[in-house]
## 1
Amino acid sequence: MVTPGFPRNTLDPDGLPVWIRGLACEDPHHSLHFAHNVEPVQALLALGAEAGSIRPCVLPDSKPNRYTSLPGAAFGGGTGDAATLLAGRVGPWTFVYDDLGFTFDGAAEILSGAGRTAVSTMSSMNGHASLHYAVDGERVEEVVIDDLRLEERLPRMPAELAAAFESAGIADWEDLGPGEVDSLLGMRAACALAGVVLTLDDLRAIPLLMARRNAGG
């Protein structure tokens, strides 16, 4: 696997950043957001988190079962039909991880308001994956990872997004054909754009917030 932006210990064997794998349940449908120069609590509220549910998060040592994410376990074993959102700040970028992927559509536009930059990506258990990149409340780029041909798309991308995809590289999955990319590319590219290359232990050292978010917002 050629991933210039990721040291070997920061990716799992499939090519997913290890901190995301550590958070996710087995076979997840999840989303990840990064926003520049916004505080974690503001990002959570912007994404529809229940204000009364926002609280500090200490991640537990393990997940209780294959269906519960690590942030969900921090709520005491999950949040029923609600997603658990986990937020923290790494340098100038705030991340929000959504363990059920409720917050993908429109999130980059919302988080990039007031002149900011944001990126949102989602990945599902059936292999579908997408990435949205937005500046000042407007979506600038929408990338359907399933259909992506990097050699054709990179020259048309904004420079910093193209650089992120190049840093993310392509996983060496045996079933990929010539020119195809792996479905986890969007997660790596989003992390590369924000420069957030972590282990789960690194994540535990960051002040974290968690919140609930219902499917309807």
## 2
Amino acid sequence: MNSIMLNDSQQRAEQQAELFLAVCDDVGFIPVFSHCSAVEYWGVQTPADCLLDKTKPHIVFPDSGSRRRSRQTITHVWKAELQPRPHYTGRFHVVSPQTAWAQIAQHCSEESLAVTAGSFMCRDRRRKVTTLDYIERYVHDNPQFPGRRKCLNILPYLAENTDSPPESVVVVLVMRANIGKPVTNHRIDFENGEFNFIDIAYPEIKFGIEYQGYYHADPAQMKADARRLNRLRLRGWEIVLVTADDLRDETSRKRIIAVIRALMERQRQLMRMGTILA
């Protein structure tokens, strides 16, 4: 899965770079690309519910006095930090990932913000472009920008080092249900030197949540998953599997949360019994 996501991320960035270079040839100045154009350049898909126009690249200026309009682009004024980074020997600049994330906040849902931030902060070092610390610092250091309230609302639910967008959705789901703050991609080491990662874990009670994407339907992957789950259960772990159907609508989300609550409470009781008997 990681290789597929890496290829998608790289292709997305390359396509944006080609588009940006074409714009550079036409506008007659060094543009700073921003908003959803910058999100895509950093390898992440613009949220489906984002209301920004995606038919043209977006560029940004620090104030209205320096703003230069172009028929090939959509222009913005952004008075918070831009943190522009030069690319292609300075032919164009791109705002930082955390700036781009803040810029789309006004135009999409809080859940989409969580997914975008999770993709920026993913566990794969080849795709990771920022950290939770940088995102939090940007929001706190820039007290006035459109959409900041949404950013502040979702900050407590952001998770670093997830592997996929649905994992970020599940983290937000369980935290907003007051189930507690989990650890993402918790590593379990085995005696033979092998190890496994649990997508979303509560290590203190050996409880985990795993998102089952489409790639888990591959026969070889199914065998590997079964072996991994059995090894974890032998270690005393309870694992809940979540699929896309469980996240489809509010009813299905409430249903999977009820399952998680029930199995988590049972696991907590089993852990207490084990402590007493020991």
## 3
Amino acid sequence: MPVVDITKDLDALTLTIVADFAAPVERVWQLYADPRQLEQVWGPPEYPATFVDHDLAPGGRVTYYMTSPEGDRYHGCWVVGEVAAPDRFAFDDFFANADFEPDTSLPASHCTYAFVERDGGTRATYVSGYDSAEALQQVLDMGMEEGSRSAINQIDEFLAR
């Protein structure tokens, strides 16, 4: 499985996931740069994602929704801060309403995704920072760790196709 470590740090207000992929950095980058590819692995398999807008550039927005097995939609949006292709990008990640506006009643995270070459493949480090320990605990209670593990663990298989 690609996920090799998950660290929850309530003092640093971060959730860090480290994964190793059997594909070069550029190929992993392409997955995040192409919304049709990203749809195949964003979120747990039982909650498929649909990306509506995908502007992976500084100041850009990425909007999407995930559909539950019962047909309910859960919306999200990113506000992209930094992009240094193919090595890293950073964004603020929000739960959103149906109009893709941030839902301020739920925690937002400040994310940095970094990719480095490792043994011919890619080591990905996903860091999500929160404004408070309560916000981090809330997303952990919502199943963020399990959902992220499930989503990331499907990337290798997708990249091998």
## 4
Amino acid sequence: MPWSEAALVIAVCWAVSGLGYGVLAALDEPQLSVAPLIGLGLAQWFFARHRCWRAAVAASLAGPVVLFGLVDVLRPDLGRYVADALATGAAATVALTVFALVGRAGGRHHDAAG
């Protein structure tokens, strides 16, 4: 996967996170989250464009760790909506970076083996 594609998908995730949590804050809906919507979008993107299972597993482990870790750290100082938006965007960034790195490493490994 090219880094330009990863950067584009990361930017879309940040936009959805910011806009989504902005709307949820305006509607005062603290029980709702945009993270599942982003996760479903990333899963659809994965099945449509890049089926590297090793990279997907690594990304799906890294993303939630960052999400839940940052939410706990950021919420006391920033409040629910801002903390959730930042944590969701950061988790998507980490997940896609891990996906790209593992996918590229796997591609090199398969090229060297062949």
